[in-house]
Structure formats: structure tokens, C-alpha cells
Automatic annotation (TrEMBL):
Gene Ontology MF terms: NAD+ kinase activity
Lineage: Archaea, Methanobacteriati, Methanobacteriota, Stenosarchaea group, Methanomicrobia
Name of the protein: ATP-NAD kinase family protein
Biological processes per GO annotation: NADP+ biosynthetic process
Top-level taxon of the source organism: Archaea
Organism listed in the record: Methanoculleus submarinus
């Protein structure tokens, strides 16, 4: 039976990530000024290209909010239900979603981040399932596919797989940009669920044993640091503890660059990291997966882009996480934006989880 899918794109979603803005809500102009390149359309094309020829009736928005993506994906039969002014905003996302709901779609698919998810949920609530193609900076909500390829699979199977109640999170981007994670549960949306295809919600681990484990990890990483080597330290409380062990002030929700015990860049963007790698080609990247979701790359650390990873060398990626986080994170994911690079990661990663202790964790490959 043919299904009807409402589809929209937030054209500016995720632009703030690579340039160190930690989000794009209200910051699109600043992101462009810093040299950001829109990429949400590309992420959406990756997903929808795999659905060319499927028995789906598409409803969408005009121009960059949907129609352009469908055309680029080779889908030429669709109905435009909403025509936004350009540039688009949250009001357009809500209006388009209401138009999809009124048209009786079976599923609303959007490409964006947490802010887009919240706007879609505001409009449709629990009256129709929703699914996000991940293109934002953080994506703490549990309404997203793990990557564009997984989104295509979920859209294809929607109606034949169960839906689950999934968290929509309201993240304060102003607080996030200042280094504080302030998030609250906004509601529960209905989302098509397939294990290893639909992402989980972020969890925060703060037990006493976790704090000791962070200290142990930090002591070990500080001990094995190689002189005259650039260390790119990703976001998170575990990586922040490494900076503190070195006597340095961390950017909790950003990316720092350190060499020989000196901070060369704090809250660095992609362009800064690439310039540092030109000067200091011997480098290591230290990253920690998002708790419960399991994303090592592609969530909250887009500054560590495919170009940065390739220049540093994938073999120089060091992953750290506490035992408690790993216990609640059975699988790891990578969604760097470069499917070929994601495949090169392989089917497992070694994760430093204590002082001279490591666990090997499975990496789910969906591309």
C-alpha cells in the first residue's frame, strides 16, 4: 500500500557546528560570516536518493525547504503543500508540518537538528509519526535516524515497523555556546523504531564511580601523550578531565587543541584545526562518545570534520569513555558526514575506560 510522506528541510541546520558555534538557532548569519557551508540539503539528498522509485507519495515545501532536495535525489513526482518565504525560519517549519498533518500524511520526515525536531513536534504532536534525518549540531532528541542511510531504511519500512515514544529535547543553545548543557524533556513523539537504525536519547552520567573513572582515564592519557604532538581534544566531561589533568582550562562543549602542555586553540573551529594540522602534522584526536547514543563522530563535534580526521589520520583517533557510560552504550556509531570515512572506521573501536584499561566496542555500520 502506498504511503504518503511529508518532507521538509531546515536549510541552515548544522551550519554552526564546523565553525564552533555549537548550534545555528539565531546564528545563521554569523555562521556564514565565519565561512560555514550549508550541508543539510546534502544530508537529505543522501537519504532520499536511496528511495528513488519507491511507492511513496511525497508532499513537500517549495525551493530550498524540500522541493530542491527531492529533485536532486531524482524524485520528480511530489506535491508542494507549502511555499515559504526565503530565508525560512521556525514558523515555516511549523506551518509546513501543519499542512502535512492536514493532508493526512502517514509520516513527517524532516532534515535538521533538535530545534527543527521541536518545531515539527509543536505542530503535529503525537498525531502522526515523525523521523529526523540528522543534520544539526547536537541532536540530543531521540527522534533521529543514526545517519542518512538509516533514515532511508526507516522511511522505506515505515508502517511495517513499530513506533516508539521518543524524547524530544529542548536544548538552550545560548547556554550551550557558553559551555553549559541545559536541556529539558519537551515531549514524546511517535517515531518508527528499528534497532541500530533509530538513535537513542543522550544520558548524562555523574555517579561517584564515574568521576573516579574520569580521573583514571585522564591520568593515563596524560601519561602517554607524545612530545611535539598536536592533540585535538573533543567535547565532553571525560575529555575535559584530561585538560584539567594537564592544568589547562577545557572548553566543555567545544574542541581544544594542545601541544606540549600548551593550549594552541580553545573552542576551535574546523578551519583553525586544519591550519594547526598544516603546521603540526603529527597529531592525535581524543574523542568521547555521547552517552547512550554512542556517537563518536558527527554529534556535537562537527569541528572534527572528515577533512580534519583524514589530515590527522584515522589511526590517530583515541576514544575514551567511563565504564558506566560504556555499560549504557552497547553500540558505537560514526556519522561524520563522509560515508566512506565512516566505513573505514571498521566494525569496532578500542575505548580507553580506565588507567591502562580499554574495551573493544562494536561499531554499527549502516552506510
Amino acid at each position: 500500500m502506498k504511503k504518503t510522506v511529508g518532507f521538509l528541510v531546515n536549510p541552515v541546520a548544522g551550519m554552526g557546528g564546523a565553525v564552533g558555534l555549537a548550534g545555528t538557532d539565531g546564528q545563521a548569519a554569523e555562521a556564514l560570516r565565519r565561512g560555514a557551508v550549508p550541508h543539510s540539503a546534502d544530508r537529505a539528498v543522501q537519504a532520499l536518493s536511496a528511495l528513488r522509485g519507491q511507492d511513496i507519495a511525497w508532499c513537500t515545501c517549495s525551493a530550498p525547504m524540500g522541493e530542491d532536495v527531492l529533485a536532486a535525489a531524482g524524485i520528480d513526482h511530489y506535491t508542494v503543500l507549502y511555499r515559504p518565504a526565503v530565508p525560512t525560519g521556525a514558523a515555516d517549519t511549523k506551518a509546513a508540518s501543519r499542512a502535512f498533518l492536514a493532508a493526512g500524511v502517514d509520516l513527517v520526515v524532516f532534515c535538521g537538528g533538535d530545534g527543527t525536531a521541536k518545531d515539527v513536534f509543536d505542530a503535529v504532536g503525537r498525531e502522526v509519526p515523525i523521523l529526523g534525518i540528522p543534520a544539526g549540531v547536537k541532536m540530543y532528541s531521540a527522534v533521529f535516524a543514526v545517519n542518512p542511510a538509516a533514515a532511508a531504511d526507516l522511511i522505506r519500512r515505515a508502517g511495517a515497523v513499530p513506533c516508539r515514544d521518543s524524547e524530544v529535547m529542548d536544548v538552550d543553545e545560548e547556554a550551550y555556546r557558553s559551555g553549559r548543557l541545559t536541556a529539558r524533556l519537551y515531549g514524546y513523539a511517535c517515531v518508527p523504531y528499528v534497532a541500530e537504525r533509530t538513535q537513542g536519547g543522550k544520558q548524562v552520567f555523574e555517579q561517584q564511580d564515574e568521576e573516579r573513572a574520569k580521573d583514571d582515564i585522564a591520568a593515563f592519557i596524560a601519561e602517554i601523550m607524545i612530545p611535539d604532538t598536536l592533540y585535538i581534544i573533543g567535547a565532553g566531561s571525560t575529555t575535559a578531565r584530561i585538560m584539567e589533568r594537564l592544568g589547562l582550562l577545557p572548553t566543555l562543549l567545544g574542541v581544544d587543541a594542545v601541544r606540549n602542555g600548551e593550549v594552541l586553540a580553545c573552542n576551535a573551529d574546523e578551519r583553525t584545526l586544519l591550519a594547526l594540522l598544516d603546521t603540526y602534522p603529527r597529531a592525535k584526536i581524543v574523542a568521547s562518545p555521547i552517552g547512550a547514543q554512542g556517537f563518536v563522530l558527527g554529534r556535537g563535534n562537527q569541528q572534527i570534520s572528515p577533512a580534519v580526521i583524514r589530515k590527522a589520520g584515522l589511526r590517530n583517533l583515541i576514544v575514551v569513555a567511563t565504564p558506566g557510560k560504556l555499560a549504557a552504550t552497547p553500540l558505537l556509531y560514526v556519522d561524520s558526514g563522509d560515508p566512506m570515512l565512516d566505513r573505514e572506521v571498521g566494525d569496532s573501536l578500542q575505548v580507553v575506560s580506565g588507567y591502562r584499561i580499554a574495551q573493544r566496542k562494536r561499531v554499527v555500520q549502516t552506510n
